[in-house]
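note to self: the first set is below, dont mix up w the second
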Amino acid sequence: MNDQDRFAELWTDYLEGELDDQGFVDLQELLAAEQSFVQRAADLLQTHRLLGLVVAESPPHQDAFVRQTLAQLPKSQDSFVTEVMSQVVTQDAARDGGLEPARRQARRDRSVLTRQVGMVSAVTVVACLLYAFGAREGDPDAAHVSSPHVRSVAERQVHMASSAHAKFFGELPPPVGAALLPQREYVLMSGLIEILFPAGATAILEGPAVFRIVSDERLALDVGRCSVHASEGAEGFCIETPVSRVVDRGTRFSIDVGETGETEVQVIEGAADVYDAQRFEGSLGAAERLVDGQAKRFVAADSFATETVPFEATSYRSRLPDRVISYQTAPGPDGDAENLTSVTVQRGGIVSRLPVDSLIPSRVSWFRSTTARPYLCGAVTISSPRLESLSDTSLVTGVINPDGSLEPLSTDPVLEGDAGTPGMAIRFDRPVLNGPGADVLFFDLQAFGNPPDGDAFHVSPLKFRDGLQSLTIEKYDLTMESPEAKVLSSFHVHFFADKATSLTELNTLATSARQQNNKFRGLAVGIDLSELGYASGESVDGLFIQDALGDSDFVDPVFIAGLPEQE
């Protein structure tokens, strides 16, 4: 048994209350000899807490041992670990005072880490809360590796380069820039992630997939599909599957591993050598070389067998889809996110960070509801004119809860009189040009208990013609499960005693303010005007927004803006 396996066995026995005195001594020696075991300890602790396997009580000297072990975590680890170790508080404080008092207490007293008696449960409770609510607003770009030192560390580790709609089994997705732990089994339930290896190889995995980081040059794929690009200098990168070892020789290729281990390899360009997994260790053995335009399936039964399959260039994914990647904010009075400062988007495969003053503001030009409800959010006192709340940079002010329809519009919305169409129309300060990828940015307030993918809504042209159609958004680019979706500053909602059937009534009817005690997150989605049928380069003056009425939750637009023409 090697040291890694021995450490995993000892630490697991310790967490489950089954470690004897000699094992405890051996565990201490391993931790002292190998720094990487400290990170492994934190990972296994989280896993065991999720599974409910950590003992409820342990001797005081062992509690101290947990504290000492986790206190060794280096500052250069990913943001999740850093947040947990810098902000950990007792379980009682997290339960009785809520998240915010815990965070404030952690900032006031960093030495709390060395004083906790119930560290095992405390780490788990606060870790889950912090990871669920995202990183602190002290980081201007917490979704990414923010400092040069941390960035240089991440570049020397296997880390998450990007993700799109990624969902992991039993945990939230690692933040962009986070190091992926060696030998840990990750289960990607759905969505896409891109992993970057230190030598320059990249792998895009598509859920469902089960994978492990074997080393800086090896990825184990037990089931699922991935696309690999090994740039110059990354030759020799290896994908391990249950039946084969696929070694890059300077290429782009895709791998699809079935539930029974059969492996299909499609080489897009360059070359790849495929070895029998049973004969790979020790000596490479005989390899079957595939070159660009070749594809084969490899199966291990009594012997390693291959068969030629049709070549499909579309099996290879060169990049993640265009989307809103992240956004950056300035904090509100309570330290959480409030004012948008910039947004990072991928459009036509090009990633750009756009300052908020480069975006094209929108203004409400029509509003009609059929039922009285809260229509505005923001400060305790509503600014005047009220309609400007959608146009400012705050993510906690807006014209919320617009009415809607189960079916999206197929004809022009009526924007006048008592027969007006329920919903809201917006006009851009200047026309938005339809370019590659998203053209319009849409932010929504969302709390836990609401749909985690975001509140569904319809977006329609203000004027229909042949070829134009409505688009229903059911899943946002940044959802409640996205580490990049920030916790928003506290705000008030303003209840209307009567329904607002016009802009005039929205701006003048009496309201009552109610502060929101729940924590909300800012979800974001990009709207591609091409999906409404607009031609490339066509300009759009405005859009019509309706809630999709599929549930009891209404969409809460707090910021809608056009994206500038791509240079």
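second set (the one i keep forgetting abt)
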Amino acid sequence: MLLNPRLLGLGIALTISVPVVTAQAQTVSKLTLDSFTNNKGSWSEVGSVWSDLAPNSHQLISEGEGIILFNAPSKKKPGADIISSEKFGDVELKLVYMMAEGSNSGLYLQGQYEIQLLDSWLEKSPKAGSNGGVYERWDDSKPDGQKGYQGYAPRQNVSKAPGVWQILEVGFEAPKFSASGEKIQNAKFRYIRLNGVTIHEDLELFGPTRGALAGGEVAEGPIRIQGDHGAVAIQSLEVKRLDLSSPEIKTINYSVFPGVFNELPSESSLKPANVGSVKSFDEFKTGITGSSLTKFEGTLDIKEAGNYTLDLEVPRGLGALVIGNNSSAVELKEGKVRVEKSLSTGTVPYTIWVSKPRDWTAQGFNLTANAEGMWPVIMSEPALAYNNSVDPIWVKTDETPVLRSFVELPNRSKLSHAVSVSSEYGTHFTYDLESNQLIRVWRGEFLDATPMWHSRGNGVSRPLGTTTELSLGTPLLLTNSFEISEEELKSIGYQVLGTGDIVFNAKTSNGGEMKDHIQLMSSGKGITRTIQLSGAGSYMIKVLPGSSLKKVSKTLYLIEDTGAYLEVLTDGVTPQLGSSEEGEGVFLPLNSNLSYVILF
């Protein structure tokens, strides 16, 4: 087992709010090809893009006209980097993109800091130059082998197949400069998520990466997309500015009242045991032992007008929050207390009540502020964790390649007889012994077993990589009209044949047998499934969710909205779209034998 960095979770119990008075302007830019300069002819806008996964094709196929940015370098039209006309500072960015086989591109924030875009589908050990990696800085004066430095590999490889849309989400904090132009704060990636998985967090950038635009680091700079290394398509690129200045607590005065308080008494009846002022909430101490109620008063400096959300939470206690001059009754509440309010520039009074009815409760409270176009700000947090947070427990493939556990489904139901199977290739799957369904496949690390193994545990394990959900656990056998068949299957165990290679056995209600052989491919591309069914009739099975089915070669199909390929290996079998109890999907007929591949 591998222990990872500590995570902190916050409970939510009850909410109060003040209606927002005015709407705040949106700060999102949706970039199109017209948003960029320096197109030498290889970039165009098309209607659709896909790949046929032919070996060594290194191309994407496009058709029609539309809004998808498509870069197809050729001898007549050599590729070139495109550079946005608009410049940005702090941003949250979302890029939906597609790579050709073996293709290479890059996304430069401010034209200076590159996040690599690469076909890394089959990589076992990602590097700084892999998909989602932060590219190296470069120094030609250093010896060979040492020229590249300060590159950062993704935590795990969660890249998808060529021809499948991938999602890159970035929180970027621009470098800061003094009035004289001196850099006083390095740039930072607050987070980088690839296909829903965090692969970088709080990553400081000490300077531009290799190939940066001339001119060096700046407070605001353009978005630059590399176009001279191969085919790449961009379905959408949204950039949200985060340039709203954060509010600050200016003054903090406090009064501490001893005793147990579950509701606010009349203030005239309260006698403080301790009063004073502090520069920050983190400096505050009650100065007494035992239970207490504390009143904080002061001013909040609003630097820019806007709609603000402030959240207060008292660990194992109660709280109340008032922003502005509010004469209405105030009540102590457990859990999260929220105030949403439109605030003008200037100072605003606040009052915070913090009740600690138990003398063993951790010191401090949580107070955060948020607004459209602003990074969330932590104004106060407890000195000690209060929710028994623990280091996550990751299951390592080489130690536990097969794990029985409970499994949570997207609809929040649980499977109690699930088997998760891993491989050294970074691909994994979960199978349900009750429904005989292939539940999900995923790419990346194997399992987080913290809920299962920490303390008493609840039996649940969770996939660590980017998942493709296949089934919600309804029975495998369906009729030709996609309804649940009267024929029932009962699991009679499974046999592990090798790494990522397992046969699940079942009996039918009329005395037949089923062997369900599932194998994670040694290439790392996906999963092969072969079902042998005896003594039963003709059925349909759902192999993938989705409402689209594009034939890209003789036996290969792309389910674009699911982000996976289906290859049918059984002669004469054709997939079809339909709708079952679980929703829309791709179905295959099952008679005595069926074999297919899912590439993801």
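remember for set 2: The chain has one helix and 46 strands.
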